[in-house]
Amino acid sequence: MRLKVKNGTRGLILADRAERASTFVQRLVGLLGRASLPVGEALLITPCNSIHTFFMRMPIDVAFLDADGVIVKQLDALPPWRATAVYRQARAVLELPAGTLRASGTREGDRLLVDPAD
What we know:
It contains two helices and seven strands; from the N terminus they run ββαββββαβ. It is mainly β. It has a single domain (about 5-115), classed as Protein of unknown function DUF192 (Jelly Rolls). It has a seven-stranded mixed beta sheet. Strand 1 (about 5) and strand 2 form a beta hairpin. It is globular, with a radius of gyration of 13 Å. The termini are close together.
């Protein structure tokens, strides 16, 4: 099922073609094998409180979300071959094309809303 991710604090759509990775295999594979992540696409990983970009081909923006969808930590343009810290408050991670968070003015403390895409 395709999802839409909106920054409820700022009233902006971050992704209108997001996917959810919630099984072990989906979370394990994540964005591996993709050459790019086009604007408007995203991956929501649940449950999740830490990620890596080993074997990835592109930088990504990362938002760590608590149980209410509030961004507890964000990383802009995380390059390939990195691992993040574990963010204990995080329950999900949203991976977006690099530059999306900055372009939208999205910041830690903003609340993201996830709904089925139209």
